[in-house]
Every structure is written in C-alpha cells, then in structure tokens.
C-alpha cells in the first residue's frame, strides 16, 4: 500500500520529504496524452466533441455528455478515458483553459471575467485547472500575453 502511494506521489511530482512541486502537472493534464484523432474516427466521441466545443461555457455534467454519446454515465467515463487517453473532466478543463488563453490573447478582460466566460462557476476552480494545464497561474499568463503584445 505504501509503495503504491509513493509511486503515485512521484507521478504527480510530490514526495514525502518535500512540499508539492507547484509546476508539476497532474498526468491527466499532459496534452501529449490526448488522442484527438479518436474524435474523428468514433462517431460517438465526434458528437461529444462538437457538443462540448459549442457549449463549453455552460455546465456540462458527465451525465449530460454521456447522453449525447448514447451511453450510460459510468460506461461513458471509462470509454472516454480509454479512447482519448484522459478522463472526461480533465479534457473539459483542457478545452476551457485553451479557450481562456484565446480570450487572453484577443481581448482585454479581467481574469475573473474570463473564468466565467469559459464556464467556471468560481475563480479558484479556474485557477487550479489553469495551473494544472499550463504550469502557470492565470494572472502570470495574462502578464506574459500583455508583455508579448507590447514588444
């Protein structure tokens, strides 16, 4: 049991001796693990992707998306992870964070407004997801974007 916990902690950049590494990303947020081609070849997942891309700013519980795929909620969760390489909620965060970055690049909006615009109900959840996906907090990313615009 202890060995499994140590292995899991090492996988997310944590150890018993040190505080968690703030830049370490959860393995599910590694964009290289996402098999985006599967959406094209699997009609169920294609419907899900199109639906999420159109409705990412709305609440999207697993049950709703499972219905779009025509599958039971528990089976859809396993099916999605098996086919895409990440769990549904992590992929949804990834989609929302990418849209948030686009908003940072194209509009001068406060981070709080961006969070709500891409579907987060509270700022703290957005900040956590953003940091897991990018390795930066939203404010730091926004500063980088602004600096790049003025160079």
Please, could you describe this protein's structure?
- The protein has 151 residues and is mostly helical.
- It folds into 2 domains: 33-86, no CATH class; 90-151, Arc Repressor Mutant, subunit A (Orthogonal Bundle), CATH 1.10.10.60.
- Helix content is 65%, strand content 0%.
- Helix 6 packs across helix 8 (123-134).
Q: What is the number of helices? A: 9
Percent of residues in beta strands: under 5%
Number of domains: 2
Mean pLDDT: 80
Largest sheet: none
Main attributes of the structure:
single chain; 151 residues; mainly alpha; Arc Repressor Mutant, subunit A; disordered N terminus
Short description:
The chain has helices at residues 2-11, 37-41, 43-55, 62-69, 73-84, 88-106, 111-117, 123-134, 138-149. It has 151 residues and is mainly alpha-helical.
Please write out the topology.
Layout: H1 2-11, H2 37-41, H3 43-55, H4 62-69, H5 73-84, H6 88-106, H7 111-117, H8 123-134, H9 138-149
Helix pairs in contact: 3-4, 4-5, 6-8
């Amino acid at each position: 049991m202890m060995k499994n916990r140590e292995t899991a902690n090492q996988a997310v950049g944590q150890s018993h001796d040190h505080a968690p590494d703030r830049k370490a990303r959860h393995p599910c947020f590694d964009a290289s693990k996402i098999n985006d081609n599967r959406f094209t070849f699997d009609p169920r997942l294609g419907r899900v992707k199109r639906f999420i891309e159109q409705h990412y700013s709305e609440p999207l519980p697993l049950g709703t998306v499972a219905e779009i795929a025509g599958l039971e909620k528990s089976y859809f969760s396993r099916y999605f992870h098996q086919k895409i390489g990440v769990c549904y909620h992590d992929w949804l965060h990834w989609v929302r964070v990418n849209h948030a970055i686009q908003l940072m690049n194209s509009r001068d909006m406060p981070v709080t407004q961006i969070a709500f615009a891409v579907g987060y109900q509270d700022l703290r959840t957005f900040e956590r997801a953003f940091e897991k996906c990018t390795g930066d907090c939203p404010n730091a990313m926004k500063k980088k974007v602004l600096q790049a615009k003025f160079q």
